[in-house]
Amino acid sequence: MRAQSTFFPALALVAATIGCATQKKVLAQKQDGAVQTALQRGRFEFNCPSATATVLSSDFIQPAIQGPWVAGMERVEYTVGVAGCNQRKTYVVLCQVGTDTCFAAHPGDRFRGGEQ
């Protein structure tokens, strides 16, 4: 009985460690694509081909719905700062895990009512 009481917590710890390592790996794999997506949008909006990008933060987003018969999408999110030609903006870039697509949004547009 004592062996069982230590087995399950140890198993949970191993599963959590593997999950974190996998998430970090996915974040690292998707980062270049996310930076390029933000950079393309920034260069277009600024009309500045020399703009540069910096990753400010990243996060692995768990699906909102998970269950035995349904599963949501896993996504990674990056906050990327783009600067060039005396302008700068911050973009939130979302990439779906399992695809090569990313989307760069500028959250300030939504919260300021479209004011610039």
Q: What would you say this structure looks like, in words?
A:
With 116 residues, the chain is of the alpha+beta class. A four-stranded antiparallel β-sheet has the order 1-2-3-4, covered by helices on one side. It starts with a helix and ends in a 5-residue tail after the last helix. 43% of the residues lie in helices and 29% in strands. It is built from two helices and four strands, in the order αββββα. The chain has helices spanning 2-46, 107-111, and strands spanning 52-61, 75-84, 87-96, 102-105. The chain is elongated and about 50 Å long. Mean pLDDT is 80; it is low at 7-19. The chain has one domain (2-111).
List the keywords.
116 residues, alpha+beta, four-stranded antiparallel beta sheet, 2 helices, 4 strands, 29% strand, elongated
